[in-house]
Each structure stands twice: as structure tokens, then as C-alpha cells.
Amino acid sequence: MCICVSCLVVEIANVGLQLFHLLAERLQPLHRVQALVLHVVVGLQAHLQASKQSLHLGETFAGHCPVALSSIMYLAMILQLFTLHIIFHQVVGSCMCELMNAESPFPHDKLNIVEKEALQCNKDINPQKEFDTLLSALERRLPRLVAEVSDLEKENDGELYGAIALQVIENDMAEIQQLLNKLNDTHSGLHLSTSQKYTRIRDKPKRIYTVSFSRLYVSQLQDMKGQLQQLEVFDTTQTVKRQNTNIRLKRDLDQCTHGSHPTPAPVQGACPHGQLLNVTGPRVHTAGEYPGSHKYGAWGRDPKPAVGKEKWYWLVILTSSNAFSHYVRRYTTLSALILGVSTPGNVLISNSNPTTNTIQGPNVVLYREALYYNCYNRPAVCRFNLTAKTVISTELPKGTRFNSKGNFCHLEACYPYTDMDLATDETGVWVVYTTAQDLGNLVLSQVEGEGEEPTLGTTWRTTVYKTAVTNTFVACGVLYATRYISKDVEEIFYSLDTVTGAERYDVGIYIAKMAGHIYSLNYSPVDQMLHAYGEAFMTSYKVVFGQTSDIRTLSEGSVAPPVEDHGSAWEEC
After folding, report:
1. Average pLDDT over residues 266-290
2. 528-559 burial by CB neighbour count: b if 16+ within 10 A, else e?
3. Predicted TM-score (pTM) of this structure
4. Residue 282's closest CA among 474, 485, 518?
């Protein structure tokens, strides 16, 4: 009976093992662990069943074979554990995983190609753009130089006219030389690209159309834009979109933050408005209180007015020999200036004219309720306090030209008693003059000591000849000089940055004139306007400032046509 029981248990274990192998062969390798678990469960069930039978048989045949029954049970369990050990090692050693990605892979090669194309495009466009700009400026200046040389050959008198004409020609040649140097610098970078021709063939046979560089660049940029838009599809987390949104929000926040605070006082040459880009207008053109009576004069606004006089204007007219004056007139608004309603009327410097400390020449300015001008018959700057009615002066350096010996001029005429030009800007008062030591070149000095005796501060010496200049003004610490082009046009051709000391002869900004000559030109930092006086007329222009990226083509300049725009000016009336 004991042998039969042992045979029964072994048979049950064999059946379970066969079932396991059958399942393992039909299932995938990843599912063999489940089959192993099933085999163990079957084996345990067999052991339980055998235990039950052993208990029953033990009761009946206990006295016959107890040792044989227990030995059979242990043998079955050892067999099960040994089978589990072998199968486990087989399953682990043959485990395989397959990963399925539903999304397309990111095209790194395509992105690298776009980056290389963008770098090459920037490398090609910058020299080409600069080359075109310089070439256009050179084409504009060469005919002018030829005309100036031709005029000199015809009308050279060997005296002042010849000297002035030669100075103008020298300035133009210096500008042309600068353009040629820049062209030579950029030519090497463009040599390869300009030597290659890009062509395409249309439908008609034997017709070849040359594609310009600009069209090629536009086409290339459009292709790169399309490729980048395709790559944005892979930005599933919208990282680029969020970055663009953050940049826009940051820009709006900066504009809002800066706009809620007043603009700080600028330092010399660091203009809060940006760089001078253009002069538009005229905004106002009027004969004022004395139509046609006084050919020379000056007008403007006080950059630092007294309380209650923020909208006031001032006017100085040369009443004696078109050269001298002894009073200043005040107007409460622009409309009062145009209509000739002066309050409080004439503010006298002296009862007689001309005399000591009266005004000589048209180039005067008003700053902090004090009038700055060329003292009568001496090389000195006078300051007349309109409240205290007192005059304090400061002498200019020895050798300064005065009494109409260092005037503003052009090829057809000189403006008498314009030896000194006073100017105001955001930083204070300036004086422009020339000396024998400087061989007639412009000299710029800052006038200091607003509440005390005026003194000359820092001085800058230029390379521009004063008699080749028709007027000067200062804006944000930068000196600008003009020259006569025609009876209709004046050009701002020169600048000196008082911070860097850099000089430019290619400013190229044009002013549309309403009279044949401008005898005085003042910049008003209050409203960024230029106030011109000439031929008994007062004219104002709007100064346009901006960042360097806003400059269209500064070297080419732009003639500002007359604009019937009185918006900002008439709002003050």
C-alpha cells in the first residue's frame, strides 16, 4: 500500500511538470514567469492532496509504512524546488523588451542645416548692405564735388571766396576719402559673392534671367522661416511659444516701468531720446510782431524757465544796423508771439544802442531767466539777468576773432557779426567761436557758473573751418554744424560728440528752408524743436530722435519737405 501511495504522488508531480512545459512552449518568453507560477500552484495543490491522503492512509495503515509516506512528500517538494530553480534561470537569461514610440523622431540634421544657413546669410547680407549704402553715398557726393571745383575755376578771386571754396572742397574730399576707405574694407568680404552670378532659366528657351542678391536673400529667409515653422511641431511642451510670450511680457513691463518715471537728466552725449535722425517741418512759420522790419534776430524758449513761465517764448531783433540790440521781448504763448502781443514788453539791457554790454550779433540764447550773447565790441560772453537787470561777462581766450572777423559764411555771402554762436541743450549753455591759434577752425566751450560769474569750462577743438559753416547748435552734448546748399535747402553735415570726441562729416540731414538764409539756429530741449530766424521770419522744425536701428540710411540723408503740421506747436497756444 505504501508503494502505491508514493507512485500516486510522483505521478501527480509528473503531470504538473508536463502541464508547465506545455504552457511554457506556447507562451511568449515574457509570459514564462506566469507559467512558472502556475506550475508551482499545481505542485502545491498536488502536495496538499497527497497530504490529505497520507493522513487518511496513516490512520488506516499507520503501523505499516509511516516513514515511506513522509519520504515521498519531501521528495516531491525537493523536485518542485529544483524545477523552479532551473526554469527561473532560463527565463531571466532570455528576457527581451520592445519599446514602441508613437511620435516621429526629432530631425536634428534639419535643424543643423537651418542654423548653418542662418549664419551664412548674416555673413553675406551685412557686407552687401554696407557696400550698397556706401556706394550710393559716394555716387551722391561725386557730382557735388565736380560742381564745386567747376565753380571755383570760374569764379576764383584769389581772396576770401577762393579760401572758402577750397575749404568746402577739402571737406567734401575728406568725406569721399572716408567713404572710399570703408568701400575698400568691405570689398574684400564681397569679392567672392559679387563675382558669382545666380541665374535661372524661364520657360522660353535661351533666356536667362539674373536673380539679384536681395531676391536670393529674401527667398532664402522665407525658406528658413518655413523650415522653422515645421520644426515647431516637435515642440510638444510649447517651450518656444512660452519663451516668446515671456519676452513680450518683459518688454511690455519694461516700457510700463520706464514710462511711469520721469526721464533722468542726461549726461553729455548720452541723449535719452536717442540719436538725431532727421529734422522735419517747418511746424511754424511767421513774421511775428514786426513783419519784414528786422532781417536779423533770434527766438526760442528757456530750457530752464521760472515757475509759471514754462510756455513763454523770447525774441531778440537787431534794431541797429542789422547788427546790434539792447532789449529782449517776452511772449506768454506761441500764439501771443505770432500775434505780436508781448508781456511785459521790452526788457531793456541799456537805454542806448549800441553801448557797453549790449547785444552784438544774432546768436543769442535764454537760459534760467538770463540772456547769453556776444558783448558789444569785445570777444566776451555777456549774461543779462532779466530779473535783477544786471550784466556779468567772461572773456574768451586770447586771439578769439570778433567784430565780424570770424563769421559764418557760404560761397555767396557771409553773415555779419556771427563770430560767436551761443547754444543751449539738456546740459546747459555752450559758446562756439574761433581763434587765430586754431587757424579759423570751430572751437566749442561750455559756459559754467549759472548763479555766479560765468566761466569757460571744458573746451573742444574741431577740424571744421568756421567760415565754411552757416550755423551751429548743440543737442544732447553733440555739436552740429550746417552749410548752405541752396535758397531752399540747408544741410546738417557735421557733428562732434563731446563724450567720445568723434567727428563726422557725413551726417547728411537736410532742412527745408522758408527763407533764403538762416541767420540764427537754436535747439530747444523742452520740446526738441529747432528755432530758426532769417529774413525777418521765425520758423520752427521738429527734431526727430531715435535708436541707431531706426536709421534708414543716415549717410544718404533725407530732404525734409515742408510739412503743414502745427499739431504740437499749436497745442501750446
Report:
1. 78
2. bbbbbbbbbbbbbbbbbbeeeeeeeebbebbe
3. 0.54
4. 518
